[in-house]
C-alpha cells in the first residue's frame, strides 16, 4: 500500500467510484452533542471493512495470530471500560519500523511493529491503544466530516484512505489532502487539539480503570516527542497524525499528578510478543546476535524467558533447528509456561519433518489453552502435514461451532476439504471466509462454484442454494446502499 495508497481496489470495495481524498489526520472538531455524525455504526463498520480488505493485501500486514490475539486482548480489556459498549474493535499489527498507530471507522485499530517495540512497558503500549480507542468511541472521524458539511460515505471513506496514506508517507498524504475540496487542511489542524485532548482524557480513564499504569501515557508521549526532535522535520508518523503540543503534555501531566503510584508488571505475553517481533527484524543473523549478546551480558529488562524465546525464534528463522531446540530446552528448564512456547515447539518439529510430534504437542496444549486461536490453527496445519485430514476436518467442524466468525478457520477448513477432494464443501467454506471479511462478491463466486461442483448430497446442495440466495441479496442491498450514498 505504500506504493499505491489510493488504490482503486479499495474504492471499488464500496462500489463508489468518485472519491476525493480530503484530509490527513484525526485532528477533528469538537461538536459536543452531535457525536455520532451522520453515519450509522453499520456504515462506519462497512467503511472500515472495505479499508481492511486493502490493508490485508498490504505486504506490511502482519499475519500473525499470536500478535493480533495479544493486541486484541489488551485492546478489549481497555475498550471494555468504555461507556460505549456497543462498539466492536479489531486490533491488528503492521510490519513497519516507524512509530505509528491509527484508527479506522468501525473500530479497526492498527499498530506498527516499530511502536510495539518502542514501548518501554505494557502500560505504554496500552496508552496508545486507549488513545486510539477513544478516537473511535468519540466518532472523531465522522465528526470531522459532518462539521465540514459533507455527511457522505465517500467523505468518510476518503478520510480513512488519507489516514492510511499518512501512515508512512507524509508527502503523499499531504498531496491527497491538498487535492481534496472538502475539509480544509487548516481547519483540520485548528480543530485537532480538542480531539487530541479528548482522546487523551478518555484514554487515561480507560487505562486507569483497566488496571494499567496511567503514567505510561505521559512517559511514552514524552519519549515520542524527544525522538521527534531528533527527526527534525521528519517527526514520527504518530506525531503527525496526533499532533503533540506542550499544552497536551502539560494537560496529561496535570491529570496524572497526585494519582497514587502504581507499579504494573508487564505480562509475559507482552514480552514474548516483543521478542517475536524483534526476532523477525533485520537479518536473521543480526537477530540471533542481538539475543545472544543480551543474554550473555544479562542486558535485558524483562524475563530471561522472553530472551530465550526470542533467541529460539531467531534461530528457527535462521534455519538452525538444533540450536533452536536447545533454547526450547532452556525454556522448559526455566519452567516457562505460555501457549506461544507450545506453538514454537510444534513449529520447530514441523520444520524438521516430524509432523506427528507437532500434532502431539498441540493436542496436549489444546485443552490447556482452549481459547488460543494460534494453537487451534497450528493443530489443523499439523494434522494436515501428518496426513490426517479426517481428524483435521472433525476438529474444524467442532471448532467452528464455538468460533463461527473466525475467517481464518474457515480458510483452513476449505484447505482441508480440498485435500479430501470435497469440492462443494471446499468452496462453501471458502465462501464463509470471504463473507466474514466483507467480500460478498467473492463469496457469491465461491458459492456458484460449490453449486456447480456436483459432489454434494441433497442436503449439502440445498444448504449451498440457500446461502447463495442470501449472499446475492446482500450483494444487491450493498450495491443499492452504495448508489444512494453516492447520490446523497
Ligand atoms: Zn490522536
Tell me what you see in this structure.
This protein has helices at residues 8-12, 41-57, 65-79, 113-118, 122-137, 140-147, 153-168, 170-179, 185-209, 215-230, 237-241, 246-256, 268-279, 284-296, 304-318, 321-333, 339-351, 355-368, 373-385, 389-402, 407-419, 423-436, 440-453, 458-487, and strands at 90-94, 101-104, 108-112. With 488 residues, it is mainly alpha-helical. It has a 3-stranded mixed sheet, sandwiched between helices. The longest helix is centred in the last third of the chain and has 30 residues, at 458-487. The chain starts with 7 loop residues before the first helix and ends with a helix. The model is unreliable at 1-36 and 178-187 (pLDDT under 50).
What structural keywords apply?
488 residues, mainly alpha, flat, binds zinc ion
Concise synopsis of the structure shown:
By secondary structure, this protein is mainly α.
Amino acid at each position: 500500500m505504500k506504493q499505491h495508497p489510493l488504490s482503486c481496489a479499495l474504492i471499488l470495495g464500496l462500489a463508489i467510484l468518485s472519491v476525493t481524498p480530503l484530509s490527513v489526520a484525526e485532528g477533528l472538531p469538537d461538536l459536543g452533542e452531535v457525536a455520532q455524525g451522520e453515519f450509522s455504526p453499520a456504515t462506519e463498520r462497512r467503511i472500515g471493512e472495505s479499508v481492511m480488505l486493502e490493508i490485508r493485501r498490504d505486504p506490511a500486514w502482519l499475519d500473525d495470530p499470536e500478535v493480533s490475539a495479544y493486541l486484541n486482548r489488551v485492546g478489549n480489556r481497555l475498550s471494555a471500560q468504555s461507556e460505549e459498549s456497543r462498539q466492536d474493535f479489531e486490533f491488528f499489527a503492521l510490519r513497519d519500523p516507524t512509530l505509528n498507530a491509527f484508527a479506522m471507522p468501525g473500530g479497526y485499530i492498527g499498530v506498527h511493529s516499530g511502536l510495539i517495540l518502542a514501548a518501554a512497558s505494557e502500560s505504554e503500549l496500552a496508552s496508545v491503544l486507549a488513545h486510539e480507542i477513544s478516537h473511535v468511541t468519540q466518532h472523531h472521524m465522522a465528526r470531522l466530516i459532518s462539521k465540514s458539511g459533507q455527511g457522505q460515505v465517500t467523505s468518510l471513506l476518503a478520510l480513512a484512505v488519507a489516514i492510511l496514506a499518512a501512515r508512512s508517507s507524509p508527502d503523499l498524504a499531504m498531496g491527497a489532502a491538498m487535492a481534496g475540496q472538502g475539509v480544509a487542511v487548516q481547519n483540520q489542524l485548528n480543530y485537532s487539539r480538542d480531539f487530541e485532548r479528548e482522546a487523551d482524557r478518555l484514554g487515561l480513564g480507560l487505562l486507569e480503570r483497566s488496571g494499567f499504569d496511567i503514567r505510561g501515557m505521559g512517559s511514552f508521549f514524552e519519549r515520542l516527542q524527544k525522538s521527534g526532535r531528533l527527526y527534525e522535520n521528519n517527526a514520527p508518523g504518530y506525531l503527525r497524525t496526533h499532533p503533540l503540543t506542550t499544552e497536551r503534555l502539560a494537560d496529561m501531566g496535570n491529570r496524572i499528578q497526585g494519582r497514587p503510584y502504581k507499579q504494573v508488571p508487564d505480562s509475559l505475553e507482552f514480552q514474548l510478543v516483543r521478542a517475536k517481533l524483534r526476532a523477525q527484524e533485520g537479518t536473521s543473523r543480526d537477530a540471533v546476535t542481538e539475543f545472544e549478546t543480551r543474554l550473555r551480558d544479562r542486558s535485558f529488562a524483562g524475563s530471561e524467558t522472553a530472551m530465550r524465546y526470542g533467541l529460539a525464534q531467531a534461530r528457527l528463522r535462521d534455519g538452525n533447528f538444533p540450536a533452536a531446540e536447545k533454547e526450547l530446552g532452556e525454556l522448559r528448564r526455566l519452567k516457562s509456561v505460555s501457549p506461544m512456547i507450545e506453538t514454537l515447539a510444534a513449529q520447530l518439529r514441523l520444520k524438521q519433518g516430524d509432523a506427528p510430534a507437532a500434532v502431539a504437542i498441540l493436542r496436549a496444549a489444546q485443552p490447556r489453552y482452549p481459547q488460543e486461536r494460534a494453537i487451534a490453527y497450528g493443530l489443523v496445519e499439523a494434522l494436515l502435514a501428518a496426513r490426517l485430514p479426517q481428524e483435521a476436518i472433525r476438529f474444524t467442524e467442532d471448532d467452528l461451532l464455538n468460533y463461527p466468525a473466525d475467517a481464518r478457520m474457515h480458510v483452513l477448513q476449505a484447505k482441508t476439504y480440498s485435500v479430501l477432494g470435497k469440492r462443494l464443501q471446499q468452496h462453501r467454506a471458502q465462501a464463509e471466509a470471504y463473507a466474514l471479511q466483507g467480500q460478498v462478491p467473492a463469496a457469491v463466486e465461491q458459492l456458484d462454484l460449490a453449486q456447480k461442483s456436483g459432489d454434494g448430497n441433497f442436503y449439502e446442495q440445498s444448504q449451498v442454494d440457500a446461502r447463495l440466495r442470501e449472499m446475492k441479496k446482500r450483494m444487491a442491498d450493498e450495491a443499492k446502499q452504495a448508489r444512494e450514498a453516492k447520490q446523497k
